[in-house]
Amino acid sequence: MKKYIALVALLVVSGFFLLSAIEMHSFGSPAEEDMDRYFIENAQEEASTNNVVTSIVFDYRGFDTLGEATVLFTAVVGVSLLFRRLIK
Amino acid sequence: MIGNLPFVACVVLIILGLYTLIFKRNLIKIVIGLNLIECGVNLFLITLGYKSDSIAPIYTMAGKEEMVLPTPQALTLTSIVIGLATTALILSFAILIYKHYKTADASKVRRLRG
Amino acid sequence: MMSKIVRTITNILYSSIMIFGFYVIMHGHLTPGGGFQGGAVVASGIALVLIAYGYDTVKSWIKKSNLSILESIGGLAFIGVAFLGIGTTFFYNFLANSGTLFGNPTVIGINPGDLNTAGALPLMSWAVGLKVLAGLGSIVLLMAYGIKKGDGK
Fold it and tell me: pTM for this structure?
């Protein structure tokens, strides 16, 4: 009985997902591109690098990289905490 | 000719991950379902930033000067690493549950035993 | 401990995987790559050695305290390089176009790359690469330890 209710719920949710995927804006023409045009034109003078994606990750948005390094450190601390009781 | 097929492919990945998360009972299969949802979302982020007839946003020995949007690619890098941290923690929990209850069935690990 | 064929191939392939990983970390500002991708490649090399030789042999080659020191050095170097440009703002690229350590200016437009460019970006890329390498290696070693030690309870 519970399986049939779960199956009907999954079908309804997947119907919503597929409908919204078909009705999105056409593939190949993004909605807004002013910020990325600034990044592509000015990354070679200001950050003096050839790779625009690396200049965004480390120079224009370096604060997100700092937060993500913290998440990686927390994962290592969490795993080392879970396997602690077996070490005598 | 292609239409919106890349968006539909990402949504099919998410639906398959949801099906595995709800209907399977082995612990490792539940972890695989969570990872499938993660992969579908990352693919959707990259697909949002494509421009027609453009190349990768790198200036070293490039072919032409029209490039795709570089910002979703930078955000997807962070998302992949966070997904890795989540998978590592949930796999460690699966190992500890198997050692304590001697079974890997998610519907038999309900009672709190000493 | 796997068979003889697997161990021989691991002996040959291990150095190539490490050199390719460090190449991807080093040239992060010219070609696709950077800190995270190169760190993941080197960590997969460590996982290959762990699978081929078993945990009891690898335990005496790679110590967990050394990996923890490497990760701390990587994290502190990342924050240190970010603080050095505090004259203008946090995370300021104070070495770009300046003429000292990594300071050549870049030719505008399509060009073959020059390794000496891009200021503080290779330093931050090395710091993040070390952090990811040590973190993924620690996770894999701890899981191998946790599976083995609980069998004899």
Answer: 0.89
